[in-house]
Design goal:
The complex is a heterodimer of chains A (257) and B (186).
Chain A lengths: L1 H9 L9 E8 L2 E6 H20 L9 H21 L7 H18 L11 H23 L17 H13 L1 H31 L2 H7 L1 H37 L4
Antiparallel strand pairs in A: 1-2
Chain B lengths: L9 H6 L16 H134 L5 H15 L1
Helix pairs in contact in B: 2-3
The chains are: A mainly alpha (257), B mainly alpha (186).
Chain lengths: 257, 186
């Protein structure tokens, strides 16, 4: 056990391990357990709810600082959605807002040492991307009928090129859930691995005495810089995920471009 | 990782659930079921809380504030208009008052001037009369004095003649001589 714990402290992959806390049993042969990942999903949702509900409970006409933050997040996402998908897109506002806040809080909480990053698992990001993808398809057909297929037929394209263009459009449409989910997952995964590797260098070098301590200054400085970069990435990826969702939803509302 | 046991025993999976299988944790399908299960529950709850409570509340707060700001701006605009009207009324009243004051001042000045002129004329007239009377008096007195002078001169000449030649000289001669002397002297 002790040997395993020591190996864990420098193993950059260990931080992504999922451990069962309580196992409930199986649904259709699939094991269902309350894991550390589930715990952090609960924490993320609890924090978002606490942040938005507690700060706005005063309903101040003149907002407090925290209420201002809640209002800014609201207006940030609302403007993002309205600019990309128009007023009609606002029916998806709770969905886009929940996605943005969930990804943002999961990314930011993952920055705390020893905390689990929910969005560093492909299945989570892929599930969210598929939700967006299916929402676009179902709403697109429900609202526009077969007119939704105009999405794949750009106007003003010469007849000869049309089959090729349509094939490319369909392919790019189908690859959306993959690119959307892999972008977020890979950013989180790679960032955390890089941080852990550089932080591990600090520990490994310190083991070599005074010279090692001096040498460890460089990876330490890099770790500090990378931490700042990762905070930026945490916000940026949440923003990218949300803005792409807005654009895809716009396709469902206005398929002919 | 190599140092880790690859055994499939339950005991090992309790220590490190994902690693026990040696798979890269994010690609370990064993955990997908649990993750999706809890994602659906937690994200569903989050969506419900956002859609039903948080977002309507923040939306209402923002709307109320915008309404309030719009109301306040309208009220300010109305008050400004009223102020402008009051200022215009005041300016008009001030202009009228100034004109009135000017008229009153002008009238008062004219009246005062007329009164002064009348007074001056009256005083001038009075003074003229007094001067005329005084001049007449002086003229009378002067005439009287001249007449007396002749009589005195005649008496004095008569007395002198009497003293020098002793009577006998006619009064008429003396008077004629005095007259002649006086005419010559004057």
């Amino acid at each position: 056990m002790a040997e395993a714990a020591q190996a864990d402290s420098v193993d950059p992959i260990h931080q992504f391990a999922i451990n069962d806390i309580v196992t409930f049993g199986e649904i259709g042969g699939v094991k269902i357990a309350f894991t550390n990942s589930a715990l952090f999903m609960v924490i993320v949702v609890a924090l978002i709810a606490a942040f938005l509900l507690l700060t706005t409970s005063g309903r101040g006409l003149v907002p407090s600082r925290l209420q201002s933050m809640a209002e800014i997040s609201y207006e940030f996402v609302a403007n993002m959605l309205r600019e990309s998908a128009g007023t009609e897109g606002m029916r998806f506002f709770p969905f886009v807002f929940s996605l943005f806040m969930f990804v943002l809080f999961a990314n930011l909480i993952g920055m705390v040492p020893y905390f689990f990053t929910v969005t560093s698992h492909i299945i989570i990001t892929f599930a969210m991307a598929m939700t967006v993808f299916l929402t676009v398809i179902i709403y697109g057909f429900w609202r526009n009928g077969l007119g939704f297929l105009k999405l794949f037929v750009p106007q003003g394209v010469p007849g000869v090129l049309l089959p090729l263009i349509v094939a490319i459009e369909v392919l790019s449409f189908l690859s959306r859930p993959i690119s959307l989910s892999v972008r977020l997952f890979a950013n989180m995964l790679a960032g955390h691995i890089t941080l852990k590797v550089f932080a591990g260098f600090v520990i490994s070098l310190s083991a070599f005495g005074a010279a090692g301590f001096l040498g460890a200054v460089i990876p330490l400085a890099l770790t500090v810089a990378l931490t700042a970069l990762e905070f930026l990435v945490a916000f940026l990826q949440a923003y990218v995920f949300a803005i792409l969702t807005c654009m895809y939803l716009n396709d469902a509302i206005h398929p002919s471009h | 990782m190599a140092s880790h046991s690859h055994s499939e025993t339950v005991a090992a999976s309790e220590v490190a659930g994902g690693e026990a299988h040696g798979a890269f944790p994010p690609f370990d399908p064993e955990t997908f079921g649990s993750q999706l299960f809890w994602l659906v529950i937690t994200f569903g709850l989050l969506y419900y809380l956002m859609a039903k409570v948080a977002l309507p509340r923040i939306g209402t707060i923002l709307e109320e504030r915008n309404d309030r700001i719009a109301d306040d701006l309208a009220e300010a605009e109305k008050l400004k208009q009223e102020t402008d009207e009051a200022i215009a009324t005041y300016e008009q009243a001030l202009g009228e008052a100034r004109q009135n004051a000017h008229g009153i001042g002008h009238a008062a000045r004219d009246k005062a001037k007329a009164k002064i002129d009348a007074d001056r004329n009256r005083i001038d007239a009075d003074l003229g009369e007094t001067i005329n009377a005084a001049e007449a008096e002086i003229a009378t007195a002067a005439a009287g004095a001249l007449a007396d002078l002749e009589t005195i001169a005649r008496d004095a000449a008569e007395a002198l003649v009497d003293e020098l030649v002793g009577g006998g000289t006619g009064k008429a001669d003396i008077a004629a001589a005095v007259d002649a002397a006086m005419k010559e002297g004057l």
